[in-house]
Amino acid sequence: MTKKHIHCRDAYPLSTSDLMPQLPDPARRQLLKMMGATGAMGAASSFLAPLTALAQTTSGPDYKALVCLFMYGGNDANNLIVPRDTAEYGLYRTGRSNLALQQNALLPLTTTPAPAGSVDPARYGLHPAMTGLANLYTQQKMAVVANVGPLIAPVTKAQWNARSVPLPAGLFSHSDQQDAWQSAIYDTAGRTGWGGRLMERMVAEGSPNRGYACISMSGGNLWETGDSSMLAYKMSSSGSFGFDFYKADSATDPLTIAIKQTLADQRSHLFHQAWLTTMGRSIEMQQVLSNALKSSTVGTAFPNSDLGRQLNTVAKLISARASLGLSRQVFFVSIGGFDTHGDDQMQQQQRLFGEISQAVSAFYQSTVDMGVANGVTLFSASDFGRTFASNGQGSDHGWGSHQFVVGGAVKGGQLVGTLPNHTLNGPDDTGSGRWIPTLSTDQMSSALARWFGADSSVINTVLPRAAAFNALDLMA
Q1: Minimal CA–CA distance to 474: which of 415, 394, 386?
Q2: What is the CATH number of the domain that holds 395?
Q3: What is the pTM of this model?
Q4: What's the total number of domains in the chain?
Q5: Which of 141, 105, 106, 102 is nearest to 123 (CA)?
Q6: What pLDDT score was predicted for residue 296?
Q7: pLDDT for residue 92
Q8: Could you count the other beta carbons within 10 Å of the beta carbon of residue 221?
C-alpha cells in the first residue's frame, strides 16, 4: 500500500534538539534516534482516552477477541478452494490451464461427523499446502465462506450487464478494495474501519486501558480506525518497543533522567507541547503493555515466519488480558505477496499458503492451551479474488473470493455460501472469471460482530449495508 507523507516543517518548526537537555553525545544521539523511531508507533496515543496504570480487574469469562488476517495483493482463492468432483474439476482444469492444481493433490474437506446440511466433502478440497487448516476443518474449528465480496445490493449477471443496481466504487483496484473490505463503505472512500467503529461502541470511553482495545502487528490499517477516538496501537511483530532502554523506576540512569526532564518541561508553543505530550503518552503506553506482557505465558510453539511472529505476539497479548482488564479486543495481522500477475503464482501461493496454515494452526492451538478458544476468532480478508482464467502466466484482479474463519465458536466443518459456476463467461462471471459475489462482506462481518456481542442497532451503525442481506449462520 502506498503511504502518503505530509511535510509541514514551516508550520511545525520543532527541532528535537531544542527540547532536550544537554547530554553527552552518545546518549543524545541514542535519544534522538529512539524518539524518531517511536514517533510513528506513538503518534496515535495523543488521541486516546487518558491512560491508567495496570487495571486491577480481570477480563473475566466474557473475554472475546477478533483477529483480522489480511492478505495484501489480492489472494487467488480459486486455488484455495478447488472442486474435486469429476465434472466440476473438468471445468476448473480447462479454465485455469497453467494455474490448475492436480486433482489428487487436493486436501479433502472432511469432518467427523459432518454437520447437517454441510457440503459433500467429495466435492471440494483445499490447496495442498494448507494441511493445518484442513485439520482444523476436520475438527470443525474452521469454516469456509465462499464467493464473498463487497456488495451494495445483491447482483445478478443480468443486472451487472445492465448496470441496473448500484455497484461498489473502484472495483478491481487494490487500494479501493482494500479500503472497501476494511471500512465496509462501498460507494465512496472509507475514512474509518468497521473494526474500529465496532470497538468505539463495545469499549466505553474512559475505560481503563482502552487504548489497547485495537492493536496492530502490521502498522497502520483502516480496519481498526474508529469514527471517534479509537485508533490502532501499533507494535512490531516481535513485540519489542522502541523505548526499551527507558527505565521508568530508575533515579540514576542518565538517559532516563534526561527523558523525564524533557517530558516534564512545559512549552508555550502549542506544537512544541503537543510533541512532548505525544511522546510522553507513547512511553506511558509502552510501559503498560510491556508490564502486561511480562505476565504472559504462552508455551505453544509458533513457526519462525513473519506471520508466525505476529500471531505469537497476539497470543501473548491475549494471555496478558487480565492485566489490561479489557473484555473486548481486536487485532490486525497481515501477509503480503498475493499480487500474482506473473509466472511465479504457483510457487508463491505454495509458500504463502504454507506460512498461513502453519501460523494459524499454531495460533488456534495457543488459544486452546490458554483455555480461550471459544472466545477468540480469526478471519481472513484480502483485496479481492483474482481472475479464474490465467493471463498466460498468473492471474489478474477479480472480485468475489473465498475466505476462512477459525475459532472454537465457529460453526466449523462447513462451507458457507455457494461457490461460483466454474464456466468461463457463465452465470457468475463478469469476464475472465471475475466472479460476482453471492455473499456480501457485510454478511460475514455482521456474523462476527453478533458473536462479538454487538446488538442490531450497533451492527446497523457499524455496517450500514448489512440490513440489505440475509444473516449468515457462521458462529455458535
Answers
A1: 415
A2: 3.40.720
A3: 0.85
A4: 1
A5: 106
A6: 78
A7: 96
A8: 23
